[in-house]
Amino acid sequence: MVLTRYQTVLRQPHVARLLITAILARLPQGMSGLAVILFLTPRLGYGRAGVATGVSVATAGIANIVLARAVDRIGVRRVIGPAALLYALVAIALAGSGGDRYGVQLVICALLGLVTPPITSVSRAMWTWFLDAEQATVIYGLEATAQELIFIAGPATVALVAGLSSAKAALVISGAVGLLGAVAYISAPPFADPPRRGAGERHHVLRGTRVLVYAGVGTCLIGGFGITEISTVAFVGGQNASARAGVVLALWSAGSLVGGILFGASSSAVTDARLARAIVVIAGGLALAAVAPGAIVLAVILCGSGMAVAPTLARLYSRMGSAAGDASKTEAFGWLAVGFLAGASGGSALGGASVDAIGARWTFVVASGVALCAVPIITLRRTGSVA
Known about the structure:
Layout: H1 4-10, H2 15-26, H3 32-74, H4 76-95, H5 102-114, H6 119-130, H7 133-164, H8 167-186, H9 211-237, H10 243-264, H11 272-289, H12 295-306, H13 309-321, H14 329-358, H15 360-372, H16 374-378
Helix pairs in contact: 1-7, 2-6, 2-7, 2-8, 3-4, 3-5, 3-7, 3-8, 3-14, 4-5, 4-8, 6-14, 7-8, 7-10, 7-13, 9-10, 9-13, 9-14, 9-15, 10-12, 10-13, 11-12, 11-13, 11-15, 14-15
């Protein structure tokens, strides 16, 4: 039965609680960007608001490695708790910064990124502490599926709060939700005595492992997805962005949701070869999108190819989980998060330039090629060597 494997894993002690509270603690990931844009745009315009959001994302990527490394050194509660509190306070500070104070607001946005709790890295590393490899793979599939909800519920919450109250209130609520979720998450018993590593182990995370290999795979995948988002908007709306593009992208996410559920219910082993094949399927779907005659067919193609997205990410999480020692997994997933951020920012930039240069249709081919670049990266045996 499809749900049997999920039921078995979710009945394990603490699993359901950790999954739910991790999603709640990560909800600001889907809230803060839109909240910042809605708050700053009326006074500063889209350009400056976009720069401020980009600064926050960039500093979050830098801080993720530092904080994830600290988690491995001193424990989850000592890092996540203070970071979540600071995040809430900085969000309040940004909400209180009114008027033409762009320089101050840029600094605050940078701080917002620097104190973003590394919940994603911790949650993916943590499953390997008390679940076996097969159970962890199941939960990775469920997490990759649930992750889609963050970027559905997050923006919807911001839009609702901003509509009923203000963008300032949305910023404050974003910080409050993150703090509430983080406290609920780190109070779980598994975090009382997590695996830790000593100072002498610091550099072993990267040396002689496949951590950077999988981070590179993540960069290519997310880069391809970022390009696809831009090309979809351009394909559907032409020179003027259309709300219909949101529907098409939502169907892409819906396909991912279905694929993730089916993947978690399967019992196939996770190997590099299967990860590579899954990426080829994604790349093929993106290339096929280039021949879509219109938005409806494009939606069907993306929905179908989207069914491979969550399973592919789940396989990537599983392989990353096996790439580092127990006491270094949080930092390993921190590097994967950095790869994702690099792919997202680079993909958006390349997608925009490609649409302007060769059009939306051929940009789907570019997205396919970027995603496909992950396949040869998988053949790398370990950092610094080739299979």
